[in-house]
Amino acid sequence: MTTIETAVKNSVYPYGVKHSPEMVADLSQRANAYRINVLRMVYNRKSGHIGGAFSAAEILTALFFHQMKLDPARPDWEDRDHLIFSKGHACAMLYTVMAHRGFFPVDELMTFRGFNSRLQGHPEPQRTPGVEVPAGPLGHGIAIGAGMALAARMKSAHNKTYVILGDGEINSGVIWEGAMVAAKFGLDNLTAILDYNGVQQTGTTSKVMPTEPIVDKWLSFGWHVIEIHGHNTLQVLEALDRADEVHGKPVMIVARTTKGKGVSFMENNSYWHGSSPTDAQFAAALAELEEEVALWQN
Amino acid sequence: MAELIRSTYGEALMMRKSYGEALVALGAAREDVVALSADVSNSDFSNMFEAAYPNRFFNVGIAEPAMVDVAVGLAKNGYVPFCNTFAFLFATRALEMIRTHLCYGEANVKLAATYAGLSDSFDGPTHQETTDLAILRSLPNMTIVVPADHLAIARLLPQIAAWKGPVYFRLCRNEVPQIYTDDYLPEIGKGIIVQDGVDLTIITCGVMVARCLAAAKVLEAKGIHPRIVDMHTIKPIDRELILRCAAETGALVTVEEHNILGGLGGAVAEVAGEDCPVPVMRVGVADRFAETGPYNDLLDNYGLSMNDIVSAAEKALLRKNR
Questions:
Q1: Which of B70, B89, B103 to mutate to test the interface with A (most CBs of A within 10 A)?
Q2: B230 forms bridges with which residues in the sheet?
Q3: Residues of B tagged active-site
Q4: What is the DSSP pairing of strand B233-235 with strand B143-145?
Q5: Closest Cα in chain A, distance from residue B218 (Å)
Q6: Each residue's pLDDT tens digit in chain B (322 positions)?
């Protein structure tokens, strides 16, 4: 453990507290530090998905340490907010954030993708405390989220449902089936966040399957759309607040992000969708990420 | 035993309507039961549930994968969702949702798969489904139930709602004879000997139970006394009963409205082959697509005629005595 990693405190900023500059800086720094955990996990196992994990760091950190009502001691708590991490391949970041939030020991992260680990290659609810549905085969999140949101509404419960989607993932047809269902039933207790990093497994989204105009697409499907810079923690926090104020429609937060964010040679490069670093690449990436964390600490 | 059987060709009732009635009764008994539709609710008769409980009914449009996924979300939050559409749409179009979230994710979702087998006879092979048992049987954690008549549906549906985990409930589109008396008390996972016999055992399910009872009469006229088993649960299969019948009667015939590959016949052959090898003859559709036409004509011409059952029984008996 480096001093930087041990310096990560796990403060929770309860839902509703003001987004102070200190809170924003703390969450931003931690999102960067979590990238180091992910790098180590994938390097250790020589397997995993770095690029899409790095692009979701600020989004997951904001949700778990501020926005979502959760109790790590009661992962199945009836009143919890729900999260479907639909881009399941990027779960190294999900596990990292959940471990620091207290769902399981941080030490366990290094078992990721190993035999007999609770941290499977893709999320699995039976093994991992706090994970609610499997993810990996892409496209399920919106429709499952719609079902959860419908259930909460029928019970007059206040649980909110969040879905994190990849941008390659929305190539899948069932995303749009789910989008129509959520709009039909006016599920304003459902918020999706599109990790719009512009790169999927074999190239840019514009080349593989053009998704623009992305905002118009979701608007035309009957969703309320908020567009933000997904690595700006303050913008993420504010968008989540604004989503709570929308009535009668599901909300899509289009978060413009960078695949491989934080490591110069990984950024915007589809190679880092599912590749693991060599020793030299690991050292170079680690140095860049540590420098970034140090910048936030000053 | 005979008191189980009302009549081989008892008064016929529309099976999907029997399902609709049973679903409404279930909705009255359990407030946590909800129904989902992929816009064929006046075909599958889930519209009866919609009329009774409009706030617990969700039509997601012609979107079977989304229907199953929405049900996953409802189940995760404590409801017992029944998805309704044609069997082939579950088994083939929505299969990945079923495999990932119902079977691997253990979501407590029930699938009411109507128009199964050849029963959507006039719509033709695009709408018929003779591969679903094989497909779904290969999935861990799946339970498969095939009711034989009106009473079987009424008795099994509440058990399906109470069963922990996903269930595929395979239903016929058409009118089927009421064969059972009130003494028929099926339990998920336990086959039922509906007629005893000593020479061989015919193991069947669903609409074919009635045909097998009729075939038994033909066999008896020839001096052959078959035992008839209603194996209404295809998975988990009742191993104990299969082995007992194999040991006691020495030959098995399976009869199912399904491809002969991988369904009830496959399950029975696997069990008998491992633990009590006896002759096993499989009656079913011979690994091909059918065609358009009247239901009974399709059954008669695609491997499920009375004669197909009788001659398979005779062949099994010959091999047993060889």
A1: B70
A2: B192, B204
A3: 64
A4: antiparallel
A5: 51
A6: 558 888 777 789 999 999 999 999 999 999 999 999 999 999 999 999 999 999 999 999 999 999 999 999 999 999 999 999 999 999 999 999 999 999 999 999 999 999 999 999 999 999 999 999 999 999 999 999 999 999 999 999 999 999 999 999 999 999 999 999 999 999 999 999 999 999 999 999 999 999 999 999 999 999 999 999 999 999 999 999 999 999 999 999 999 999 999 999 999 999 999 999 999 999 999 999 999 999 999 999 999 999 999 999 999 999 998 8
Residues of chain B found within 8 Å of residue A173, distances taken between Cβ atoms: 65
- List, in sequence order, every residue forming a beta bridge with B113; answer none if it has no partner: B85, B170
Fold held by A21-297: Rossmann fold (3.40.50)
ipTM: 0.93
- Minimum-distance CB partner of B58 among A136, A150, A159: A150
Q: Say which residue the tokens 């993810």 belong to.
A: A135
Helices (H), B114-249: 132-137, 150-162, 208-221, 239-249
How far apart CA B177 and CA A139 sit, in angstroms, is: 43
**B155: CB partners within 8 A, 6+ apart:** B184, B185, B186
Residues A274 and A259 sit within 8 Å (Cβ to Cβ): no
Q: Is the per-residue pLDDT at A6 higher than 50?
A: no
Question: Cβ distance A159 to A152 under 8 Å?
Answer: yes
Residue A137 in tokens: 């085969």
**Does residue A160 sit at the B interface (CB-CB below 8 Å)?**
no
pTM of the shown model: 0.95
Integer Cα distance of B11 and B320 in angstroms: 36
Domains B12-177 and B192-321 share a fold: yes
State the CATH class of domain B192-321.
alpha beta
One-letter amino acid for residue B232 of the chain = H
Note the Cα B202 to chain centre separation in Å: 16
Cis upstream peptide for A125 (omega within 30°): no
Interface mutation target, options B39, B56, B77, B95, chain A, most CBs of A under 10 Å: B77
The CA radius of gyration of chain B, in Å to the nearest whole number, is: 19
Question: Among all residues of chain A, which has the CA nearest to that of B107?
Answer: A133
Confidence of residue A7 (pLDDT cuts 50, 70, 90): very low
How many Å apart are CA A217 and CA A222, to the nearest integer? 9
H or E element that contains A166? strand A161-166
Backbone angles phi, psi at B193, to 5 degrees: -80, 110
Instruction: Please list every residue in chain B whose beta carbon sits closer than 8 Å to the beta carbon of residue A160.
Output: none
Distance CA A253, CA A89 (A): 20
Q: How far apart are the first and last CA of chain B?
A: 30
- Other CB atoms within 10 A of residue A59 CB: 28
CA distance A262 to B162: 50
What's the rounded Cα separation, in Å, for the pair A90 and B121?
Answer: 46
Kindly tell me the burial class for residue A38, based on how many C-beta atoms sit within 10 Å of its own C-beta (0-12, 13-18, 19 or more).
Answer: buried
Q: How many CA atoms lie within 13 A of A119 on its CB side?
A: 29
Contacts of B78 in chain A (CB under 8 A): 151, 155
Domain boundaries, chain B: 12-177, 192-321
Looking at beta carbons, which residues of chain A come within 8 Å of B75?
Answer: 147
Q: Which of the listed CATH numbers 3.40.50.970, 3.40.30.20, 3.90.79.10, 3.30.360.10 matches domain B12-177?
A: 3.40.50.970
